[in-house]
Amino acid sequence: MLADLPESSTEADASVVRVLSYNIRSMRDDVGALARVIRACAPDVVCVQEAPRFFRWRKAAARLARASGLVYVTGGATASGPMILSTLRPHVERTEDVLLPRTPGLHQRGLATAVLRFGRARLGVVSCHLSIRDEERYAQGRLVLSRLAALGVPHGVVAGDLNDRPDGRTFGLLAGELQDGWAVKPWGREHTTRLGDPLQRIDAVFATAGVEVLGCGVPMGLPGVSEADLRAATDHLPVLAALRVPAEPA
């Protein structure tokens, strides 16, 4: 059983923040199973991909947040899919939803971004879902890094569905500038595609250099996370990371 991932905490010099990245396939599957998985992971922040984007999407987002014991922060249709949820623990300093340049014939993509404060620790958060086409995806990866820097805080996290593997150039672009959570401190399961599908790691949590990665991976075996719920919830597996974020000077 996986029970060694650090719990959320706040100290004088740092805060431990649990970040979950999860492609929820527009809540087209078992929402009860989805909420149970999220609750069992006990995240402070959830970076969602493929949030509902169309008719009554705000109502669907509120339903998921309520069922998961979280609150809506930003994103959804306004970011063309990426969304951020959180507990009441962080103070939301600001948010911005960004639509990325679109290639004709392909889906509109966007970013959900926020600056969250945990005591004296501030964390920039970017939730993303990148293109299936290599050239567009690489350009989007560069924009993700630019937007993270533009948040103007010393510590940040990027979480999402990259549609790229660790040997791909967009994954490599992000891993070259940020810490790839799984590569730094692997925990749980590596591959993020649905159980039974070809093994791939296409979902990830990245952190800036000053953040300490305490563990990152798919929470297979975590108490309360059942294989049946993972299969029923959506077509991706979640990635959970525990991060120690340094406090800013008083």
From TrEMBL:
Its cofactor is Mn(2+); Mg(2+). One of its GO terms (biological process) is DNA repair. Residues 20-236 form the Endonuclease/exonuclease/phosphatase domain. InterPro entries: Endo/exonu/phosph_ase_sf, Endo/exonuclease/phosphatase, TDP2-like. Keywords: DNA damage, DNA repair, Endonuclease, Hydrolase, Magnesium, Metal-binding, Nuclease. It holds the Pfam family Exo_endo_phos. One of its GO terms (molecular function) is hydrolase activity. Gene3D superfamilies: Endonuclease/exonuclease/phosphatase. This is Endonuclease. It comes from Streptomyces mobaraensis. The lineage of its organism: Bacteria, Bacillati, Actinomycetota, Actinomycetes, Kitasatosporales.
